[in-house]
Amino acid sequence: MDNTNERIAMAPLPTPGELRRRRNAFTQFFRFMRINWTMWLLARKSHH
Amino acid sequence: MARVVVLGAGVSGHTAALYLKKRLGKAHEVVVVSPNSKYNWIPSNIWVGVGKMTTDDVVFPLAPIYKKKGIEFVQAKAFALWPEGDAESDQPAVEVEHTSQERMGQTEKLRYDYVINATGPKLNFAATPGLGPDDGHTVSVCTPSHATEAKTKLDDVIAAAKTGKEQKVVIGVGHGTCTCEGAAFEYTFNVEHELRAAGVRDKIELTYLTNENELGDFGVGGMQFEQNGFRTTSQLWTESLYRERGVKAVTGAAVTKIEPGKIFYDQLDGSHNEMDFDFAMLLPPFKGTDWAAYNKAGEDITSTIFAPSGFLKVDADYTPKKYEEWSAKDWPRTYQNPTYKNVFAVGIAFAPPHQISKPRATPDGVAVAPSPPRTGMPSGTMGKVVAFSIADMILKGAEKPTHAASMSEMAAACVASAGTGFKTGTAAAMTMSPVVPDWEKYPETGRNLKETFGEIGLAGHWVKRLLHTLFIYKAKVKPGWTWIPE
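Structure tokens for the assembled complex are given below, as produced in the milestone run.
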């Protein structure tokens, strides 16, 4: 029995603080730098 | 002088050709064969499908790039491989049919010393009756023209909603064995974003229809990662996003037939279901391009080189095994064909040993088995390592490939857009390491938790937008292109 929509209905919603953090340009700039840096490191070590 | 023929000019083929030419220089020939005259940065097609980009933003002509780099470009479709040569010559050959206007329909044999099959997939809309934009009733975002058509039909739905008519939008995959669920996920949330921007979100029921057993599977068996001090799953993480955006979902589904305005699908519990739609974007399953292979005597050896799916066999362990016996070690490392050592396959064109996500079937035997993704970052990495190996075999006389990149060792990043806009955009940025879980090395989660993470926010959108610019810059071979990793 597919209970996916029941699970969606019970999934945690982001808090107002989390939603603000996701939109805050200052916070997101640092996240942007971190994501890029992590991806760059992973890409560099993906082959040998 | 050695001659390397690269079949395909997508992410993996184009990457391989550029690195080959860089390493081999003018002393050796690199030939690219592609039926398309233009390069397409496929990950941005979803933005064409919602009108945020045009076709011209995601494609550019290949011929000038190859001319500048000294690579021969043949606009043609490969259809037969002669790895032992033929009656005319001992040199192996690939048989192609030209697709340019000047030489349309002409065939020729291109001789090679090494060949890389990077032909990508054949979009197998025919696998599901009624699927697809050409002979069916659904749209697609697999190509720029498909995405442009999807945008036009989405506009019709928005216009109807503005008149007060309730509309049903279904986005997902159109067969039980599809891959690229991430692209369907992205399109779902980009459409949702556009519907809100158009002020019609309340008039539209949006449903994500997928063969994944649970949300967040993405064809890689889902992920676990740490967030705010807790270990969470991609399933819970994505379910939260679906709730936040008010998107319904049907999982474990195999679409079996599509009629105008109606999708028929089976689910793992054995149920046979129908779903009405006003707009449906369903991705097709992939299969290998239509290949044949012949030995020197002209006898058919297709099954020696190609798997039944049409993908090329490489250095993977293809022994049939139960799911519980699958191992990360089954996955290929060098992408070299075991029979013909000068034949390689990269990207979607290589035959995977098995799925990553657990395959299932309905009680009626309908497969609900997401195929393993082999696109994007892994695809480019494979192209690069094969280029390096072939260059070493030519220049240094290496007897076997010198570089390796197994999907059970390499990491991948996936940035799934959930809406565009410099200040209003959102994307789910994910990394996983390795792509294929290694349960021996990481017994708890299958992956390295330090290198596997997920994050939703505006930063993800900026990353996705940056990647669009950087990868097109790289593909155009502009100064410093090698500094941009795959």
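The two ends of chain B are 29 Å apart (CA to CA). Chain B has ten helices and 26 strands. Further analysis is deferred to the final report.
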